[in-house]
Every structure is written in structure tokens, then in C-alpha cells.
Amino acid sequence: MFAQFSETLGALQLPLRVVVKGGPTLDLGPDPRVTLLINDLGLLQEMQNPTLDKLGAAYIDQRLDIQGNIMDVIAVADRLSKGLLGDNTEPAPERTEHDKQMDAEAISYHYDLSNDFYALWLDPQMVYSCGYFRNPEDSLATAQTQKLDHLCRKLRLKPGEHLLDVGCGWGGLARHAARYYDVQVHGITLSKAQLALAQARSEAAGLTDRVTLELRDYRDLAGRENYDKIVSVGMFEHVGHANLGAYFKILFEQVKPGGLVMNHGITAKYIDGRQVGRGAGKFIGRYVFPHGELPHLSMAIASMSEQGLEVLDVESLRLHYARTLEHWSGNLEHHLEQAGQLVSDKTLRIWRIYLAGCAYGFKRNWMNIHQILAVKPLADGTHHVPWTREDLYR
């Protein structure tokens, strides 16, 4: 088995050393930067078809261990997989309509993990979304503050306005908007752990008179035209393709005529929304984001338009997210010992692969992330949004 394994992989010339537990060692190229420690001999046969989800699952299940910089590990795994399988793509998956229980369970699985665990690698405000780097060398904290301000400026927030924050997370955007733009913020989330910390931080900041946060599904928002502006960051990835129309319909109904809606979310590379090839998308769906679905930008714009929202502006932040994820991954790697005390070994392995893998994927255009700004036109079709973007950068 090992001879067949050596013959198959040796031609790839990878900076990889393979060490079989109780057996031989094989270098697949000069100066190996990554070492795979094979704990399960059965894995040698499976590595003749090394999809990225199989490699990730083997690491999570401790059938193999890794040594080396985590970014090098991801790059070598991709080269190994591509070298044997080519750059194939997955078929378009079947879509299921999300119900409230499914979404609540999926959100809880991902976000109710441990606030202390997330705090190890996020910025001090615990903003769990793409930063905005005015300069590549900006710190993570600076980039996240800039992102919060970039969103508020795009929404043209004014004192006294009422802002709905759909999927408010740990409340960083709500606090920023209330503190620096003097608006009333209503934030909703399905994560109990996030809500508890967000409420505590709002209270500590003395913002409870301007920030109201609650556990609520977007489908349970009552009434119509309650908000001057609406923002949704990192939320519509959880909505599902089948629910996009209903989701944007609710945002359209909740915003006042002339009001702005900002949707900030990860988008698919392919128009039909199929996952990236060789199993990377499958890995995320299985271990990280159950029932997560990435719409293509064109699908998101079409759905918003069908519900009556006029798209005004679109900005890709793909390379910004690659840099953000590099910071997150680096922070986690720096705190592995502490992280291991907060979550299980399996969970820590999942997140090491996930953060580094996503940094790699965004950098190589496996997926994108877009801020889509839209307006609900007034009855006569007009709106009062500035004619240029000049006000954003003053």
C-alpha cells in the first residue's frame, strides 16, 4: 500500500513529508515545510482520491496530525488534491426551505460555541465579519472599526434615525452606530450567547437608551415601515436560496419609503451557487455552517430587485476578507493552548482548518463577499441618496 502511495504522490513534488505511524517516512519534495503524521494506515488508500473534505475530516478525526505553519498546510493540501483530482467543480446542490427551528439550531451550533473562544482571535469589539483595510498593514482592530464606520457612512445615518440590525452578533455595529451617529438601534439575533454578551457590553457602554437587542427571528418582525435604515452583516448566508425572496421582502416591508438597506454577505463564485470544488464547501457545510448557502451576487441583486429594492451600489471586499481571516487564523494559532481549554480537541481542529482554509479560499477567488446598498424608492420613484460617493470619503 505504501509503495502505491509513494508512486502516486511522489511525482507531485510537494514540500511535504509523510510519516506513517510505526512505519516509513517519505519526502515528496525538497525542503518539506509540512509534515503529515498518518495515524491510520487505511488513510493511505483513501489519499489516492484526496478531496479537501476527506483530508479535513481525517485531521478532525485524528486519523492524521499535522506539523508546520497552518497556512502552508492548507496550501499543500490544495496542491495535493488538485494534483491528483484536477480542478473539478461540484454539481449544483439541492435546496431546502429553511424553517425557524432549522435556522435557530444552525445558528446555535456555530455561534453559541464559547464567547471566550471567539474573544481569543477576534478584535476587541468582537466583530465577526470582514474588516475594511484602508491600508494592507492596518491592524485587525483598526480594520474592523473602519468597516463599522464604512457601513454607517454608506447608510448615511443621521441623529435620531431608527436602524434595524439583522443578525447583530456581539453588538459591535449597534454600539458604533449609536455612539458615533446618535441613532436608535434595534438588533436581533438567534444566538443566546451572543445576545448575553452584546447586552452586557451595551450596558457597560451606557448605550441602553439607544440600543435594544433581542432574540428574534427576522420572520417574526411585526408591523411595517418601522425603520429608517436596515443593515444585515453576515446574515443572508444562513437564509438559504429558497428563502431569499421572503427575506428581502421582509426587509423591504420594514424600511420606510426612501430608506436604505445594506446587505453585507459572502457570495458564491458560480452563478448557480454551487460549492467550490474538491470538497471544500462540503467540509464547511458539515463541520462549520450547517445549512449555510451562498447565493451568487446576481441572485442576491435579482432577489432584492424583485422585492422592490433598487440597488444603488455594490462593493467587493474579497481581498479584505482574506486579510481579515489571516489575522483571525494567526490569532487562533497564537492562542492554541488557551483555545484547547475552552473547546474540545475536535472543535479546535475544525476551526484551525476553517479559518486558514477560508483565508486561502478568499485570496484565490473561491468565493467573494459583497456589500450591496439598496433603497426603497419613494412613491414617485425618487430618493434622496447623494448623486455621487464623495460624501463617503470626506
Automatic annotation (TrEMBL):
UniProt record similarity statement: Belongs to the CFA/CMAS family.
Domain of life: Bacteria
Active-site residues, record numbering mapped to chain: C358
Protein name in UniProt: Cyclopropane-fatty-acyl-phospholipid synthase
Pfam family for this entry, one: CMAS
Record keywords: Lipid metabolism, Methyltransferase, S-adenosyl-L-methionine, Transferase
Signal sequence region: none
Lipid metabolism is among the record's keywords: yes
One GO term of the biological process aspect: lipid biosynthetic process
GO molecular-function term, one example from the UniProt record: methyltransferase activity
Protein's organism: Halopseudomonas bauzanensis
